[in-house]
Amino acid sequence: xxxxxxxxxxxxxxxxxxxxxxxxxxxxxxxxxxxxxxxxxxxxxxxxxxxxxxxxxxxxxxxxxxxxxxxxxxxxxxxxxxxxxxxxxxxxxxxxxxxxxxxxxxxxxxxxxxxxxxxxxxxxxxxxxxxxxxxxxxxxxxxxxxxxxxxxxxxxxxxxxxxxxxxxxxxxxxxxxxxxxxxxxxxxxxxxxxxxxxxxxxxxxxxxxxxxxxxxxxxxxxxxxxxxxxxxxxxxxxxxxxxxxxxxxxxxxxxxxxxxxxxxxxxxxxxxxxxxxxxxxxxxxxxxxxxxxxxxxxxxxxxxxxxxxxxxxxxxxxxxxxxxxxxxxxxxxxxxxxxxxxxxxxxxxxxxxxxxxxxxxxxxxxxxxxxxxxxxxxxxxxxxxxxxxxxxxxxxxxxxxxxxxxxxxxxxxxxxxxxxxxxxxxxxxxxxxxxxxxxxxxxxxxxxxxxxxxxxxxxxxxxxxxxxxxxxxxxxxxxxxxxxxxxxxxxxxxxxxxxxxxxxxxxxxxxxxxxxxxxxxxxxxxxxxxxxxxxxxxxxxxxxxxxxxxxxxxxxxxxxxxxxxxxxxxxxxxxxxxxxxxxxxxxxxxxxxxxxxxxxxxxxxxxxxxxxxxxxxxxxxxxxxxxxxxxxxxxxxxxxxxxxxxxxxxxxxxxxxxxxxxxxxxxxxxxxxxxxxx
Length: 678
Prior knowledge:
Elements: E1 2-6, H1 14-26, E2 31-34, H2 39-42, H3 52-63, E3 67-71, H4 79-84, H5 111-128, E4 134-138, H6 150-164, H7 167-174, H8 208-234, E5 242-243, E6 246-247, H9 255-258, E7 266-268, H10 277-291, E8 296-299, H11 318-328, E9 333-336, H12 363-382, E10 391-394, H13 397-405, H14 415-428, E11 433-436, E12 447-450, H15 458-469, E13 473-477, H16 499-502, E14 504-511, E15 517-522, E16 542-552, E17 557-562, E18 572-579, E19 582-587, E20 589-591, H17 593-607, E21 618-624, E22 630-636, E23 642-645, E24 650-651, E25 660-661, E26 666-669, E27 674-677
Parallel strand pairs: 1-2, 1-9, 2-3, 3-4, 4-5, 6-7, 7-8, 10-11, 10-12, 12-13, 13-19
Antiparallel strand pairs: 14-16, 15-16, 15-17, 16-20, 17-18, 18-19, 21-22, 22-27, 23-26, 24-25
Helix pairs in contact: 5-8, 6-8, 8-13, 10-14, 14-17
């Protein structure tokens, strides 16, 4: 298992490098990522390339027995390029032309940028692809941001011509009759920035279809820039995996769309202090399902971050717990940013394996070394194994973007939050989940959850309807299937593409005031007022944010109704409908924690999917080897001791003296404790 991360020797004198290698070996580090931000050093001017320093560090790392992930350095431009070729610099949403600085500062549609980036990637491949210890290529770094420059405007028009063929077709699909937006030619169309169509209600455009298309166009633009580097490497090296490092909570780029162009999925995981562990697990599952193979945890901090309002240290044992959580959800590496703390720059207070003073006496270094010893012992057994999920959640970038762009029905509507809320209940129940796109093969799952699937094409609706017809269980919610792939309202009884499958018609949708909820009555019971328990958590089921006024078909079963307090008291809120051989559930409101617990419990019980009960804060996940052997990870996500019943017979591979454990035996986990049962 790869254990290591970013090493930036350019920030330190050469006499420090040998010292660092000794400490990294002591910590069982077996991999370093090199050359992430070195373009200015590798190409000091337009005609000159200088690989001497990179050669030296590659030789040193190789002589110390470490593997290398080689980055292409194209995440930040050299100054000479910015000043000689201003077309490489971005223009932001407000129309400001950027000058040299920061990083990810290049326009992906700049021909100049693409030419020089591909040339550098090709030269790196020529020089280093023959290394025996090269395990992957790392193109650029943490792609981010948008551009609205003339390069992008021209490329956008060409992209629209290819997508729509004629301006009349575009006018029809976009609905440009609205507010007299009709275009006579593609040349009249500009990116939806603040000076134009994006100025109405930031970040919402007057024509949502234009904003959605620009996001899709920019996906293709950034992927295109990535691919010119990938192709330059492939001209020399046909075998070494090529990837880039994604980020969570990042709507700007559709990673599912990108998945076919990466050889292995990778992401950088930086939960804030207090982030629910289920949120982090959600993103691990998103990234794993991009390729349906193990992924690389490319970055995490071993101690603290550097860019939050306050940057708390990870508590003793927490780095280990978060690392094992990533592995439990499918990671085949544990990597850090960074190997040694920076001397200067805006990340000099970010955590590192080796602190700036070079000592091995820090708590962080000792914890990294202890985890390294564990991974050296058991990592080879884990690599290549995968979770097996009976439940899938559809996570859709178009729906995420479309609802971010929507003006109404509520500013409290948050697609990502609702997806995570439903996922959190499955995480609490220790149920493995695949977080997939709308193009996934649903036939392999017993239950498919599609919370807030706002944008649904006829094609994707047909696939989900067919899934239910053939015996699957589908869960839909308020705001499902409102718009088509162009963010234009579906016509018919909402949710129109799923009307027959869901067996409901949502006549109206009410938006609740902030912090307002509506009681929900499950199973015909009397409505109850909502009270807070001792921990200030809601103790009774309730709906929040939006409430559909649902009209069920005659053969649709009502599972819950609205309680007192609104004019629709007593009306259906949650329903179940049998269609073909399967079931479709419809939740007409967003559910608070007690309501989600009740609802998901009924869905899983009907599908025959068991919950593994644990104390709060204990998670259990299993990966299966190709030979069918089960590796079960039991993790205490909290800073308090927890008791857990061993879920199956096995041997704890992380115990100092591994012994056989019997299913059902109660065992105490220390704060942030981890067990690995074989």
